[in-house]
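Recap from last week: sequence in, structure out.
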Amino acid sequence: MVKARKIVLAKRFDGMPKVNDFEIIEEELRAIKDGEMLLKAEYLTVDPYMRIVSEEMNIGETMVGHQAAEVIESKNADYPVGTKVLCRHGWTSHSISDGVNPGFASGDVCSPLRKLDFPDGIPTSAALGVLGLTGVTAYFGVIDVCRPKEGETMFVNTAAGAVGSLVGQIAKLKGVKTIGCTSTDEKVVFLKEYGYDEVFNYKKEDLDAALKRTAPNGIDCYFDNVGGKFSSTVLRYLNYGARVAICGFVSQYNRLQDQEKVPAPEGILLWQNISVKGFLFWEYRSQFPKAYEDMIQWLQEGKLKHKEWITDGFENMPKAFIGQLSGENYGKPIVKA
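Predicted C-alpha coordinates:
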Protein backbone atom coordinates (compact mmCIF):
# COMPACT_ATOMS: atom_id res chain seq x y z
CA MET A 1 0.00 0.00 0.00
CA VAL A 2 1.14 3.54 -0.80
CA LYS A 3 0.28 6.59 1.25
CA ALA A 4 -0.73 9.41 -1.04
CA ARG A 5 -1.29 13.07 -0.35
CA LYS A 6 -3.89 15.23 -2.03
CA ILE A 7 -4.80 18.89 -1.67
CA VAL A 8 -8.49 19.68 -1.49
CA LEU A 9 -10.62 22.80 -1.45
CA ALA A 10 -11.30 23.42 2.25
CA LYS A 11 -13.39 26.60 1.94
CA ARG A 12 -14.72 28.94 -0.73
CA PHE A 13 -12.38 31.66 -1.92
CA ASP A 14 -13.30 35.18 -0.90
CA GLY A 15 -11.41 37.35 -3.35
CA MET A 16 -7.77 36.27 -3.60
CA PRO A 17 -7.28 32.65 -2.40
CA LYS A 18 -5.44 32.10 0.88
CA VAL A 19 -3.30 29.19 2.03
CA ASN A 20 -5.85 28.17 4.66
CA ASP A 21 -8.48 27.77 1.91
CA PHE A 22 -6.80 24.44 1.16
CA GLU A 23 -6.20 21.26 3.14
CA ILE A 24 -3.64 18.47 2.66
CA ILE A 25 -5.17 15.04 3.18
CA GLU A 26 -3.28 11.76 3.42
CA GLU A 27 -4.88 8.54 2.22
CA GLU A 28 -3.83 4.95 1.59
CA LEU A 29 -4.21 3.82 -2.01
CA ARG A 30 -5.54 0.35 -2.80
CA ALA A 31 -3.51 -2.22 -4.72
CA ILE A 32 -3.58 -1.77 -8.50
CA LYS A 33 -5.61 -4.14 -10.66
CA ASP A 34 -4.84 -5.68 -14.05
CA GLY A 35 -4.61 -2.94 -16.67
CA GLU A 36 -3.75 -0.29 -14.09
CA MET A 37 -0.61 1.49 -12.96
CA LEU A 38 0.57 3.48 -9.96
CA LEU A 39 1.83 6.98 -10.73
CA LYS A 40 4.09 9.25 -8.71
CA ALA A 41 3.91 12.96 -9.50
CA GLU A 42 7.22 14.60 -10.44
CA TYR A 43 5.96 18.02 -11.53
CA LEU A 44 2.56 19.65 -11.13
CA THR A 45 1.08 22.73 -12.72
CA VAL A 46 -0.80 25.68 -11.29
CA ASP A 47 -2.81 27.82 -13.70
CA PRO A 48 -5.21 30.78 -13.48
CA TYR A 49 -8.14 28.75 -14.84
CA MET A 50 -8.16 26.75 -11.60
CA ARG A 51 -9.52 29.85 -9.87
CA ILE A 52 -12.59 29.77 -12.12
CA VAL A 53 -13.08 26.01 -11.94
CA SER A 54 -12.98 26.12 -8.15
CA GLU A 55 -16.33 27.95 -8.15
CA GLU A 56 -17.99 24.77 -9.41
CA MET A 57 -16.15 22.41 -7.06
CA ASN A 58 -17.48 20.87 -3.88
CA ILE A 59 -15.79 21.52 -0.55
CA GLY A 60 -13.43 18.61 0.08
CA GLU A 61 -12.88 17.97 -3.63
CA THR A 62 -9.32 17.54 -4.95
CA MET A 63 -7.98 20.56 -6.83
CA VAL A 64 -7.87 19.93 -10.56
CA GLY A 65 -4.87 20.09 -12.89
CA HIS A 66 -2.21 18.28 -14.86
CA GLN A 67 0.96 16.63 -13.67
CA ALA A 68 3.99 14.97 -15.21
CA ALA A 69 4.30 11.63 -13.43
CA GLU A 70 6.35 8.45 -13.46
CA VAL A 71 4.95 4.93 -13.51
CA ILE A 72 6.34 3.25 -10.36
CA GLU A 73 4.24 0.06 -10.49
CA SER A 74 2.39 -1.37 -13.46
CA LYS A 75 0.00 -4.05 -14.59
CA ASN A 76 -0.51 -2.32 -17.93
CA ALA A 77 1.76 -3.51 -20.74
CA ASP A 78 1.46 -0.19 -22.58
CA TYR A 79 2.95 1.70 -19.63
CA PRO A 80 5.87 -0.20 -18.06
CA VAL A 81 7.61 0.96 -14.90
CA GLY A 82 9.72 4.04 -15.57
CA THR A 83 7.42 5.50 -18.23
CA LYS A 84 6.85 9.25 -17.90
CA VAL A 85 3.30 10.43 -18.61
CA LEU A 86 1.13 13.52 -18.59
CA CYS A 87 -2.09 13.00 -16.66
CA ARG A 88 -5.04 15.00 -15.33
CA HIS A 89 -4.97 13.72 -11.76
CA GLY A 90 -5.03 17.08 -10.02
CA TRP A 91 -3.13 18.01 -6.89
CA THR A 92 -2.13 14.49 -5.85
CA SER A 93 1.26 13.02 -4.97
CA HIS A 94 0.37 9.48 -6.08
CA SER A 95 -2.54 8.14 -8.11
CA ILE A 96 -3.86 5.05 -9.88
CA SER A 97 -4.60 5.11 -13.61
CA ASP A 98 -5.99 2.69 -16.19
CA GLY A 99 -4.12 4.57 -18.92
CA VAL A 100 -6.99 6.87 -19.86
CA ASN A 101 -7.57 10.54 -19.08
CA PRO A 102 -11.10 11.90 -18.71
CA GLY A 103 -12.32 14.33 -21.36
CA PHE A 104 -11.45 18.02 -21.11
CA ALA A 105 -15.11 18.98 -20.86
CA SER A 106 -18.49 17.43 -20.18
CA GLY A 107 -19.38 15.03 -23.00
CA ASP A 108 -15.83 15.10 -24.37
CA VAL A 109 -14.06 11.90 -25.37
CA CYS A 110 -11.43 10.30 -23.16
CA SER A 111 -7.84 10.02 -24.33
CA PRO A 112 -4.83 7.81 -23.54
CA LEU A 113 -2.22 9.17 -21.16
CA ARG A 114 0.38 11.08 -23.16
CA LYS A 115 3.81 9.46 -22.96
CA LEU A 116 6.63 11.95 -22.44
CA ASP A 117 9.73 11.20 -24.46
CA PHE A 118 11.27 14.52 -25.42
CA PRO A 119 14.54 15.08 -27.33
CA ASP A 120 17.72 15.55 -25.29
CA GLY A 121 17.89 18.90 -23.55
CA ILE A 122 14.13 19.29 -23.09
CA PRO A 123 13.02 18.53 -19.50
CA THR A 124 9.98 16.46 -18.57
CA SER A 125 8.49 19.55 -16.92
CA ALA A 126 8.12 21.12 -20.39
CA ALA A 127 4.99 18.97 -20.76
CA LEU A 128 3.32 21.36 -18.33
CA GLY A 129 4.52 24.47 -20.13
CA VAL A 130 5.92 25.11 -23.58
CA LEU A 131 5.15 21.56 -24.76
CA GLY A 132 1.87 21.34 -22.90
CA LEU A 133 -1.42 23.19 -22.71
CA THR A 134 0.37 26.50 -22.04
CA GLY A 135 2.28 26.10 -25.29
CA VAL A 136 -0.68 25.13 -27.45
CA THR A 137 -2.73 27.98 -25.97
CA ALA A 138 -0.06 30.47 -27.09
CA TYR A 139 0.43 28.71 -30.43
CA PHE A 140 -3.20 28.58 -31.56
CA GLY A 141 -4.06 31.92 -29.97
CA VAL A 142 -1.48 33.58 -32.20
CA ILE A 143 -1.72 31.50 -35.37
CA ASP A 144 -5.44 30.73 -35.56
CA VAL A 145 -7.18 33.46 -33.56
CA CYS A 146 -4.98 36.54 -34.08
CA ARG A 147 -3.79 35.48 -37.56
CA PRO A 148 -0.99 38.10 -37.65
CA LYS A 149 0.34 39.39 -40.96
CA GLU A 150 3.94 40.44 -41.45
CA GLY A 151 4.47 44.05 -40.45
CA GLU A 152 1.48 44.22 -38.12
CA THR A 153 1.55 45.11 -34.42
CA MET A 154 0.52 42.80 -31.59
CA PHE A 155 -0.06 43.83 -27.98
CA VAL A 156 0.09 41.27 -25.16
CA ASN A 157 -0.78 41.90 -21.50
CA THR A 158 0.63 39.85 -18.60
CA ALA A 159 3.37 39.25 -21.12
CA ALA A 160 5.84 37.79 -18.60
CA GLY A 161 3.44 35.00 -17.66
CA ALA A 162 3.38 31.42 -18.85
CA VAL A 163 1.38 32.07 -22.02
CA GLY A 164 2.38 35.68 -22.69
CA SER A 165 6.12 34.97 -22.71
CA LEU A 166 5.53 32.45 -25.53
CA VAL A 167 2.98 34.52 -27.46
CA GLY A 168 5.46 37.30 -28.16
CA GLN A 169 8.09 34.90 -29.46
CA ILE A 170 5.67 33.07 -31.76
CA ALA A 171 4.37 36.39 -33.09
CA LYS A 172 7.95 37.51 -33.81
CA LEU A 173 8.46 34.36 -35.89
CA LYS A 174 5.57 35.63 -38.03
CA GLY A 175 7.25 38.98 -38.64
CA VAL A 176 5.12 41.01 -36.23
CA LYS A 177 6.07 43.98 -34.03
CA THR A 178 5.40 42.91 -30.45
CA ILE A 179 4.47 45.09 -27.49
CA GLY A 180 4.21 43.63 -24.01
CA CYS A 181 3.27 45.02 -20.64
CA THR A 182 4.09 43.69 -17.21
CA SER A 183 4.16 44.66 -13.55
CA THR A 184 7.82 45.16 -12.57
CA ASP A 185 10.99 46.63 -14.05
CA GLU A 186 12.69 43.24 -13.64
CA LYS A 187 10.03 41.66 -15.84
CA VAL A 188 10.52 44.41 -18.41
CA VAL A 189 14.15 43.31 -18.73
CA PHE A 190 13.07 39.66 -18.90
CA LEU A 191 10.67 40.33 -21.77
CA LYS A 192 13.22 42.29 -23.76
CA GLU A 193 15.56 39.31 -23.41
CA TYR A 194 12.73 37.16 -24.78
CA GLY A 195 12.46 39.31 -27.90
CA TYR A 196 9.64 41.77 -27.30
CA ASP A 197 10.18 44.94 -29.35
CA GLU A 198 8.53 47.27 -26.83
CA VAL A 199 7.80 46.64 -23.14
CA PHE A 200 6.39 48.85 -20.41
CA ASN A 201 5.60 48.57 -16.72
CA TYR A 202 1.88 49.37 -16.43
CA LYS A 203 2.27 50.12 -12.72
CA LYS A 204 4.70 52.95 -13.49
CA GLU A 205 3.40 54.29 -16.81
CA ASP A 206 -0.16 55.29 -17.59
CA LEU A 207 -1.69 52.77 -20.01
CA ASP A 208 -2.97 55.42 -22.43
CA ALA A 209 0.40 57.14 -22.55
CA ALA A 210 2.27 53.85 -22.96
CA LEU A 211 0.10 52.70 -25.88
CA LYS A 212 0.40 56.07 -27.63
CA ARG A 213 4.18 55.81 -27.28
CA THR A 214 4.68 52.15 -28.21
CA ALA A 215 1.90 51.75 -30.80
CA PRO A 216 1.75 55.06 -32.69
CA ASN A 217 0.17 53.30 -35.69
CA GLY A 218 -2.34 51.38 -33.62
CA ILE A 219 -2.70 47.70 -32.73
CA ASP A 220 -3.72 44.96 -35.17
CA CYS A 221 -3.71 41.97 -32.81
CA TYR A 222 -4.51 41.99 -29.11
CA PHE A 223 -3.81 38.90 -26.98
CA ASP A 224 -5.83 39.49 -23.84
CA ASN A 225 -5.22 37.73 -20.53
CA VAL A 226 -6.63 40.48 -18.30
CA GLY A 227 -10.02 41.77 -19.40
CA GLY A 228 -11.93 44.36 -17.36
CA LYS A 229 -11.14 48.08 -17.39
CA PHE A 230 -7.63 47.42 -18.73
CA SER A 231 -8.97 45.91 -21.95
CA SER A 232 -11.62 48.60 -22.34
CA THR A 233 -8.74 51.07 -22.60
CA VAL A 234 -6.79 48.94 -25.08
CA LEU A 235 -9.80 48.65 -27.41
CA ARG A 236 -9.50 52.36 -28.23
CA TYR A 237 -6.13 51.72 -29.88
CA LEU A 238 -7.19 48.83 -32.11
CA ASN A 239 -7.02 49.39 -35.85
CA TYR A 240 -9.89 48.73 -38.23
CA GLY A 241 -10.23 44.98 -38.72
CA ALA A 242 -8.13 44.12 -35.66
CA ARG A 243 -8.32 40.66 -34.08
CA VAL A 244 -8.64 40.02 -30.35
CA ALA A 245 -7.83 36.67 -28.72
CA ILE A 246 -9.46 36.38 -25.30
CA CYS A 247 -7.32 33.89 -23.42
CA GLY A 248 -8.32 34.92 -19.91
CA PHE A 249 -9.65 37.73 -17.72
CA VAL A 250 -7.49 37.54 -14.63
CA SER A 251 -8.54 41.02 -13.46
CA GLN A 252 -12.00 39.58 -12.78
CA TYR A 253 -11.07 36.21 -11.22
CA ASN A 254 -10.92 37.60 -7.70
CA ARG A 255 -13.42 40.39 -8.29
CA LEU A 256 -15.46 41.55 -5.32
CA GLN A 257 -19.06 42.75 -5.53
CA ASP A 258 -18.31 46.45 -5.04
CA GLN A 259 -15.66 46.85 -7.75
CA GLU A 260 -16.05 49.49 -10.44
CA LYS A 261 -18.13 48.54 -13.46
CA VAL A 262 -16.36 48.25 -16.82
CA PRO A 263 -17.49 50.43 -19.75
CA ALA A 264 -19.38 48.55 -22.49
CA PRO A 265 -17.17 47.99 -25.58
CA GLU A 266 -19.83 47.26 -28.21
CA GLY A 267 -19.57 50.60 -30.04
CA ILE A 268 -15.83 50.32 -30.65
CA LEU A 269 -16.10 46.68 -31.69
CA LEU A 270 -18.84 47.49 -34.21
CA TRP A 271 -17.44 50.61 -35.84
CA GLN A 272 -13.89 49.32 -36.02
CA ASN A 273 -15.03 45.94 -37.44
CA ILE A 274 -13.02 44.16 -34.73
CA SER A 275 -13.11 40.38 -34.47
CA VAL A 276 -13.15 39.09 -30.89
CA LYS A 277 -12.85 35.40 -30.09
CA GLY A 278 -12.64 33.59 -26.83
CA PHE A 279 -10.86 30.28 -27.27
CA LEU A 280 -10.11 27.16 -25.26
CA PHE A 281 -7.19 24.84 -25.86
CA TRP A 282 -9.26 21.66 -26.17
CA GLU A 283 -10.89 22.96 -29.37
CA TYR A 284 -7.55 22.28 -31.05
CA ARG A 285 -6.69 18.88 -29.53
CA SER A 286 -6.64 17.14 -32.93
CA GLN A 287 -3.92 19.62 -33.97
CA PHE A 288 -1.76 19.31 -30.84
CA PRO A 289 0.82 17.01 -32.54
CA LYS A 290 1.52 19.64 -35.22
CA ALA A 291 1.90 22.37 -32.59
CA TYR A 292 4.27 20.23 -30.50
CA GLU A 293 6.30 19.37 -33.60
CA ASP A 294 6.71 23.03 -34.55
CA MET A 295 7.62 24.14 -31.04
CA ILE A 296 10.15 21.35 -30.53
CA GLN A 297 11.79 22.44 -33.77
CA TRP A 298 11.83 26.09 -32.67
CA LEU A 299 13.31 25.11 -29.30
CA GLN A 300 16.05 23.07 -30.95
CA GLU A 301 16.81 25.87 -33.39
CA GLY A 302 17.00 28.42 -30.58
CA LYS A 303 14.06 30.41 -31.94
CA LEU A 304 11.89 29.78 -28.89
CA LYS A 305 12.88 30.08 -25.23
CA HIS A 306 10.89 29.01 -22.20
CA LYS A 307 11.15 29.99 -18.57
CA GLU A 308 9.95 27.82 -15.68
CA TRP A 309 9.17 29.31 -12.29
CA ILE A 310 9.79 26.31 -10.04
CA THR A 311 8.45 25.94 -6.50
CA ASP A 312 9.84 23.00 -4.51
CA GLY A 313 7.58 20.77 -2.44
CA PHE A 314 4.12 19.30 -3.03
CA GLU A 315 2.89 20.97 0.14
CA ASN A 316 3.63 24.35 -1.46
CA MET A 317 1.04 23.94 -4.23
CA PRO A 318 -1.28 26.55 -2.64
CA LYS A 319 1.59 29.01 -2.27
CA ALA A 320 2.54 28.61 -5.94
CA PHE A 321 -1.10 28.91 -7.02
CA ILE A 322 -1.60 32.14 -5.09
CA GLY A 323 1.76 33.46 -6.29
CA GLN A 324 0.88 33.15 -9.96
CA LEU A 325 -2.52 34.80 -9.41
CA SER A 326 -0.60 37.65 -7.75
CA GLY A 327 1.76 37.93 -10.72
CA GLU A 328 4.91 36.74 -8.94
CA ASN A 329 5.96 34.31 -11.65
CA TYR A 330 8.25 34.70 -14.63
CA GLY A 331 7.14 32.23 -17.29
CA LYS A 332 5.41 28.97 -16.39
CA PRO A 333 4.73 28.26 -12.71
CA ILE A 334 5.46 24.61 -11.87
CA VAL A 335 5.72 22.72 -8.59
CA LYS A 336 8.39 20.08 -8.20
CA ALA A 337 6.93 17.34 -6.03
